[in-house]
Structure formats: structure tokens, C-alpha cells
Q: What sequence folds into this?
């Protein structure tokens, strides 16, 4: 389990509150497994920083020293069993939770890059099997020298773009002692846009490693970790998946010394769905810094049997669920696999290639094995990987085939095609709130206050109800969920006044309403770390499977939403009253907005409670087709308490949308400029109401007036005595409608009706002027 450092935070009268923290960097950006490493954490609003939250096990905080608002010094300890590679972390403070930043775990001790190694002859000597931490500035190249014996493996791989700090695309090369280039690389599929370069030493001697930005760019934010040594680094494993509980023979591919045969014991217990596990390769005590990925499934695994390049000689497999594994070795090659299926089955067929860091850009086909007829195809549905849902038309044999979309091939073009019956599922995620930003991608609940967010809950093959569970919420924190709004669900978290200040990662579980546990799924949040041109393309993403939640010190304000005492009517207008309770130390403005608008409801985006005031109304409107239903709504509020925004929310309150009391239809009317006219609106009483209603004729042209008409629930028409002016614009005026106001309990309910009424005004005849 992750460990949090707790500290005593003294909140004194008049203290300025910090805002949500910003995690700018961790230096070095990676730490050695099985060792203690001192790191410097920099950012903003860190003066009340309490510790780290890590989404993976094995990283502990040994010491924690807050230097100032922008700097923390910590000693981190990485357990020997912690996985290699990326570990996503956040900083939590007494007032919030930072965004995610990757922190890398590697097998080698850290070395700091010299400031004078930008010339070949000044290459920095480093020991074999170390990790150099450096920065590439503009048009800069760093050189390192390492000793090797003839026949030794010399490998260098960089973590650059993957560190998530900057749009930094590194390039690396290996040179002999004379500067002759032996190997180079820009992007490697395993490392995404980071390089992996490896060669066999031809003679005993010194070899040089160089690293730069691929287009000779660079900046103070272009950090890298360069692993230099004789370690193995395969780039693929075959098969890239297996059946749970089995001891699977595998071959590691792509290492400079050739294929390496091993056996891998797969975990015996997994969920009903397949999972992806990291797989680290070792050779004579040296571990590869970057793990490979291996799928673990509860169903049979089938390996291709060559030749299987057409339907006739397709590799056979059992009926679904089944996983087919292969390698596209040769140009224009396609691999075929055969299985039996039953009419009416619905199958999900997914190719795992790029998701496993294979260079294969898959193209998937489904064939009728008897008629040799193509039934379905897909290129890119999951990034560059292929997926399709296949409805089996008849009992019989079918084939799937996999190839590269551009007919490329290679010894590491591994893939896995899983053919599984569709299983009802519910997926839960926290959608991006601010484009290209991690803003409000965690839940921060001030003591004695509330925080609201929307969760996206998508049902696939399941039409029933569900509930959300949040096991592991901090003590004193409770949640209330509202009614589903399409695929989204409002959730309000509340912290008790005595809830302890803390930060944690909690599960979010969707469970079918039956409560049997047969339909249960977890949380997945995709976080985009680096964007660049064109079109803010996300060059680096990560995924986390728990929701970050903290209890923060009290906010200096609280907001409440007054439950409406009357419904809002379809095609009507209303307002919601928001009140604020302030700490005497805070008098500033508070921005409030709806957490969400129910379908057919619109509202002003942001309304401000002015400084030194305690309430405001949010105008809302209902369209004519707004669904007649009671919704659970809330408002969110933010205010700058001194160093940035602090967020709170109201509780969920019911908002009812109802049919209007009266519908209507306006008769066409015409008159001359300056002449009066009677306009009749025929009324249809939808619902009875007590007392009277006021009907106002709206949309009249300039200098035209009509007194309001008072009606009761028994009236069938409202007649307006319309007065025009000699200068009223002539023509067809087509925008007339009626505004109906009904009072209930002293509250006005307003709705529009009879849209599209027409008043034609003709020009008056001109009087002749007698000649003198």
C-alpha cells in the first residue's frame, strides 16, 4: 500500500488559505528500486504539503521537509518488489491535491549529468549500469563514455517524453572511441517517442553515448533519464498473453543479443475480465529498466501454427472465449485463426498490439470460413488497435485474420486477438472538466463542507439500474448520488466538521441493482499529460484506476441552494437562489454555477455573489421539450481566498420540470398603422390552477402596446386590445407569443406559449396636400 506522511498543520486566525497545489517537477524524476533517494519537489502552493499519493505500491516517504511555498525536500524509499517503470504520483496538501506527474522506478543508481559534457572530447565517464539524470537545452547534445569488453551488450535507453514534463522528443546514439556511429534511434515502439539503442561491443575499449533533442530543440524543462549499461532490453514478448494460473513458456524478442527463452508464472486469480501485467526481463542479475506488457485471461490461449496465411490453413482454436497470438514476420503477411460460433452470439473481437507496445498497426477481418466471405473489418478503433463487435449470423466456423495496415512486418510485430462473448458492463470515469487540463480531476472536500462533481457512467449491454460504491473514502466523508443524466451522474461528497485532514486514493465500484455482485466494475480515469500541435494532440497519456480524495482544512465560505417551492414550467423561466455563509475573514466575491443542467434546462454559465453580499439568483430556462421530471441538482462555488480558487458545493436539491398550465394558439390579425386591432389567443387548459393567471402578449413590433389579460382555469381565450402608432413599421410581424404567469404560494411560475403569432400592419394611406 502507498504510505502518506502526516504533519501537524496549525491553522491560526487570519491565516491566508492556500489553493490547490501544483506539482511542477520532481528532481530527479526517477528513483532506484530497493534504495532511498532524496528528491526535490517543486511547484506552487506547497507550503502546507503533507505527502505523496502513489497509484502503485512500493513507494514510501521516509522524510518530508517543506522548504517554502514552492519547494519540498523528501526522501523516498522504493520497495524491492515495486514494479519497474512509471509510477503516477500526486502531492496532497492541507488544502488540496495536485495533478498527476509520472515518477519512474529503475534498477540502477542515479548519476547527475555534468555541465561540461556537451563536447565529444569532454564526454562524462559513467559506470556501466547506471541512470544519468540530465536536461537538454536548446541545440545541446550530452556525451557519456562507458567501458565495455568485446562481446558485451551496450544498451542505452532514455525516458524523456515519458517523464511527462515537456514536449521533448530525445534521440540517442552509440559511438566508438573515434566518434564513429555504431547505432542510433529516435522513437521505439516500446518506449513510445523515446529512444532505445543497443549494440555488441566489437572490441575492448571505451564507447560513447550521445543524447539530444531529435530536431535540435530543447529547453530547461527537457529532462531525461538515460539508462546506460550491459543490461538486456527486449522490446516484445511472445506470446504477449496467457491463461491465468499457467506457467507459460515465452520468448523475449528484440534484444541485441537475440531471442531469450524463459518461463513466466501467471497469477492464478484475476477478475472475470483480462488484465495487463508488467513483465520485467533479467539476464545474469541485470534487469531491464522498461517492463513489457502481458495479458492474463481466464480463457484458453492459442498460438499461431505456421503456415496460417489463409482461411484454408487457419490455426484452429476452441469456441470463444479464446485468445489468438501471433507475429507478423513477413511483408504483406496476414495470420488466420479458426473458431466455431453459434448463431445469435455477440462477440467482442479486440486486437492488442500497440496497447502492448508492439510496432504493429493492426487491421482486423472476420470471415465466413466456409464461404471465404469477408463479414466485418476494422482498422483503428482503440487508437491504432482494431476492435469490432460481431453478431454471429449462423452456426458454423469463422475466421479472424490480422495484418499490418500498411503490410509492414518484423520479428517484434507481436499481437493478441481476443474473441470473447459480450459481457454486460458498466464503466465509471471522471470526465475532463477543463480542456487539456487536470483541473478538478480529484475530489477535495473542506472540513464541514461539500464538493460536487459529475461522474460518467456508461452501460454496455446492460439496461438495469446500478449504484455506485466508494470503498475507502476518508473517515468522516460521505457521498450522495443524484439521478442519472444520460451517461453522467451527479455526486456530492460531504466531510464532517471533525473529519481528519488527509489524502487517499479510493475505489469507485458500479454494482448492478440486484446487489448480487455479478455485475460489478471499477473506475478508470484517462489523464492526458502532454499536448502539442497539431490540434493539441495528446502525445502522452496515463490511466489510473482509483479516485483521489482528500479532506482539506475548512474553506472560508459555504454555499447552499434553496430548494424551489414550485416547478419550472416547460418553455418557462425561473431562478434558483444561492446563499453563502462566510467566515468573517473572507468578504470577497464567490462565483457560482450549476453543477449540471438537466436536459432542456439552460442557465447562465457563471453568476457572482458580490463581495460583502450573501446571496444571488441564477436565472434558468426550460425548453418546450424539457423532460417533465424531478431532477436532483446542485450548484458549485469557487472563490479566491488569497492564493487561488477553493471549490465547494451545495447539497443536491429537487428541481421539478412540469407541463405549463396553459397552452395557446394566436389567431392571425391585421390592421393599419395607427389603428387598433383585437388579437385573440385561444387557450388550452393543461392543468388546473387556483386563482387567476396573467397573460401578456409578447414580441410586438415597435410602438405597439397591449394591456395584459387576466384569466382563470375556465377561460378558453384571451383577447388583447392592441394599439398601434402611425409610425409603427409596416409588414408581417411573425414573432408574437404569450407569456403566462401563475402564482402559487406567492411564487411566480412563468411559461411561454402560442409561439409564432402573426400581426400584419399595413401602411396607412397618405393624405393629399392641397396646392396653394
A:
Amino acid at each position: 500500500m502507498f504510505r502518506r506522511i502526516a504533519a501537524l498543520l496549525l491553522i491560526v486566525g487570519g491565516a491566508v488559505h492556500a489553493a490547490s497545489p501544483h506539482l511542477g517537477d520532481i528532481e530527479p524524476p526517477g528513483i532506484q528500486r530497493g534504495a532511498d533517494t532524496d528528491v526535490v519537489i517543486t511547484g506552487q502552493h506547497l507550503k502546507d504539503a503533507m505527502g505523496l499519493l502513489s497509484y502503485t505500491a512500493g513507494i514510501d516517504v521516509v522524510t518530508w521537509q517543506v522548504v517554502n511555498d514552492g519547494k519540498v525536500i523528501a526522501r523516498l524509499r522504493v520497495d524491492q518488489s515495486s514494479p519497474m517503470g512509471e509510477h503516477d504520483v500526486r502531492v496532497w496538501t492541507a488544502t488540496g491535491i495536485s495533478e498527476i506527474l509520472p515518477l519512474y522506478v529503475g534498477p540502477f543508481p542515479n548519476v547527475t549529468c555534468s555541465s561540461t559534457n556537451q563536447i565529444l572530447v569532454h564526454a562524462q565517464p559513467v559506470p556501466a549500469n547506471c541512470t544519468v539524470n540530465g536536461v537538454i537545452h536548446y541545440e545541446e547534445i550530452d556525451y557519456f563514455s562507458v567501458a565495455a569488453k568485446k562481446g558485451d551488450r551496450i544498451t542505452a535507453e532514455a525516458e524523456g517524453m515519458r517523464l511527462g514534463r515537456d514536449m521533448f522528443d530525445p534521440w540517442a546514439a552509440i559511438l566508438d572511441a573515434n566518434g564513429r556511429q555504431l547505432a542510433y534511434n529516435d522513437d521505439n515502439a516500446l518506449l513510445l517517442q523515446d529512444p532505445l539503442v543497443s549494440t555488441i561491443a566489437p572490441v575492448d575499449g571505451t564507447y560513447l553515448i550521445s543524447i539530444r533533442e531529435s530536431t535540435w530543440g530543447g529547453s530547461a524543462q527537457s529532462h531525461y533519464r538515460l539508462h546506460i549499461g550491459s543490461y538486456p532490453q527486449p522490446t516484445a514478448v511472445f506470446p504477449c498473453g496467457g491463461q491465468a494460473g499457467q506457467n507459460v513458456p515465452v520468448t523475449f524478442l528484440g534484444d541485441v543479443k537475440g531471442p531469450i527463452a524463459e518461463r513466466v508464472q501467471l497469477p492464478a486469480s484475476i477478475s472475470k475480465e483480462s488484465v495487463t501485467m508488467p513483465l520485467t526481463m533479467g539476464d545474469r542479475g541485470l534487469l531491464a529498466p522498461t517492463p513489457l506488457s502481458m495479458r492474463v485471461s481466464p480463457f484458453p490461449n492459442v498460438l499461431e501454427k505456421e503456415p496460417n496465411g489463409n482461411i484454408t490453413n487457419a490455426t484452429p482454436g476452441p469456441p470463444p472465449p479464446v485468445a489468438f497470438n501471433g507475429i507478423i514476420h513477413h511483408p504483406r503477411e496476414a495470420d488466420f485463426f479458426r473458431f466455431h460460433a453459434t448463431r445469435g452470439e455477440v462477440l467482442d473481437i479486440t486486437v492488442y498490439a500497440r496497447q502492448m507496445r508492439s510496432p504493429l498497426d493492426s487491421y482486423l477481418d472476420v470471415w465466413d470460413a466456409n464461404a471465404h466471405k469477408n463479414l466485418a473489418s476494422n482498422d483503428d478503433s482503440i487508437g491504432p488497435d482494431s476492435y469490432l463487435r460481431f453478431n454471429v449470423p449462423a452456426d458454423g466456423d469463422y475466421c479472424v485474420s490480422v495484418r499490418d495496415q500498411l503490410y509492414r512486418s518484423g520479428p517484434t510485430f507481436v499481437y493478441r486477438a481476443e474473441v470473447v462473448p459480450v459481457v454486460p458492463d458498466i464503466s465509471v470515469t471522471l470526465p475532463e472538466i477543463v480542456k487539456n487540463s487536470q483541473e478538478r480531476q480529484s475530489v477535495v472536500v473542506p472540513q464541514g463542507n461539500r464538493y460536487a462533481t459529475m461522474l460518467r457512467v456508461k452501460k454496455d449491454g446492460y439496461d438495469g439500474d446500478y449504484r455506485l460504491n466508494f470503498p475507502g473514502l476518508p473517515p468522516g466523508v460521505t457521498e450522495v448520488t443524484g439521478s442519472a443524466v444520460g451517461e453522467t451522474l451527479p455526486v456530492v461528497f460531504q466531510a464532517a466538521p471533525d473529519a481528519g485532514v488527509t489524502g487517499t486514493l479510493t475505489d469507485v465500484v458500479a454494482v448492478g441493482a440486484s446487489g448480487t455482485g455479478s455485475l460489478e466494475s471499477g473506475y478508470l480515469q484517462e489523464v492526458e499529460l502532454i499536448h502539442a500541435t497539431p490540434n493539441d494532440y495528446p502525445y502522452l497519456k496515463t490511466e489510473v484506476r482509483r479516485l483521489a480524495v482528500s479532506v482539506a482544512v475548512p474553506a472560508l465560505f459555504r454555499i447552499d441552494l434553496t430548494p424551489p417551492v414550485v416547478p419550472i414550467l416547460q418553455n418557462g423561466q425561473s431562478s434558483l437562489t444561492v446563499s453563502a455563509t462566510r467566515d468573517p475573514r473572507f468578504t470577497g466575491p464567490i462565483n457560482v454555477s450549476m453543477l449540471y443542467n438537466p436536459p432542456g434546462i439552460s442557465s447562465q454559465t457563471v453568476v457572482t455573489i458580490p463581495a460583502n453580499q450573501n446571496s444571488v439568483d441564477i436565472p434558468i430556462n426550460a425548453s418546450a421539450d424539457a423532460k417533465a421530471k424531478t431532477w436532483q441538482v446542485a450548484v458549485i462555488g469557487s472563490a479566491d481566498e488569497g492564493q487561488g480558487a477553493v471549490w465547494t458545493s451545495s447539497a443536491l436539491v429537487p428541481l421539478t420540470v412540469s407541463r405549463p398550465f396553459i397552452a395557446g394558439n394566436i389567431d392571425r390579425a391585421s390592421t393599419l398603422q395607427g389603428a387598433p386591432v383585437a388579437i385573440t389567443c385561444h387557450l388550452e387548459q393543461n392543468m388546473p390552477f387556483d386563482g387567476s393567471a396573467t397573460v401578456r402578449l409578447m414580441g410586438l413590433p415597435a410602438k405597439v402596446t397591449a394591456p395584459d389579460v387576466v384569466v382563470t382555469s375556465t377561460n378558453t381565450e384571451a383577447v388583447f386590445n392592441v394599439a398601434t402608432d402611425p409610425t409603427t413599421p409596416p409588414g408581417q410581424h411573425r414573432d408574437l407569443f404569450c407569456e403566462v404567469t401563475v402564482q402559487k404560494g406567492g411564487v411566480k411560475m412563468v411559461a411561454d406559449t402560442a409561439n409564432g403569432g402573426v400581426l400584419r400592419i399595413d401602411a396607412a394611406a397618405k393624405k393629399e396636400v392641397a396646392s396653394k
